[in-house]
Amino acid sequence: MVSPAAPAALVRTLVVALFAALIAFAPVQARAQQLVTVTTTVTTNVTTTVTWIDDDTPGAGDAGAEDADEFAADDDTAALLDDAGDDTRVAGEADLGATRRYAPGAGLATRGPAKARFGPFAVVDGTTARMSGDVDGATPRQFAAMLAAFPGVRRLEMIDCPGSLDEEANLILARAIRRAGLETVVPSGGSVRSGAVELWLAGSTRRAAPDAEFGVHSWADEYGREAKDYPASDPVHAEYIGLYREMGMDDAHARAFYALTNATPFDQVRYLTRDDMARFVPLN
Hints:
The chain folds into two domains: 1-74, no CATH class; 79-278, 2-enoyl-CoA Hydratase, Chain A, domain 1, CATH 3.90.226.10. It is 32% helix and 20% strand. The protein is built from eight helices and 13 strands. The strands form three sheets. Strands 4, 5, 6, 7, 9, 10, 11, 12 and 13 form a nine-stranded mixed beta sheet that branches. Helix 6 packs across helix 7 (251-262). The protein is globular, with a radius of gyration of 29 Å.
């Protein structure tokens, strides 16, 4: 004889099975971080619990963030990127993170065969690295990682360098190049433009082929405002002039070079020769 409770139990079992099947085939997005419990109870006092993971829980992905923080903190070359000791930085200096100075070309020149690559840098032998590409927020760390892996690098050949998408990172990188004592070279056919000119200036010694080109123009902020749109007293100007002084220019030459670059609008480029650059800094 069939128990009167059997039909109810059968229905309950079918409902739970159907619900579990729906959960099993739910999108992956519904399977993360928060445990959600659905409980069904029938008159026979049998309780079934189904659980899944909810992706939208606040704090989802915290474990990955901790891993990233741990990686960021584990950097033996942090001192190379540390500007804290520079006494030429100015109080109240502007945040340059959203400022850019960039002049793309028709196409980036090849860096050739390499022992290893770090962002725009390619190590070609124990003492020489080549650079082709722009500077962004990751580039200073890539430079530091390169020197940590190849501490014998002493020469940076700049093949095709269009500038910076992040001026704060660009100035950090310039100071790191200077601190590392690298020679900067623009070889025959090489082109450094925009923010990359600061990187060439950062060399402890500087070389350039007769046909090397140096493209300059004004920087622009995230709102499209250029250097000329800021008052003369704004700290952003002192940041650049201070950098040029760190790279060996006297105050008059630093101010003259800064004025020269900003005389050309951001959406144009003025090309200078090796001899033009020799008016501002010594070449070897």
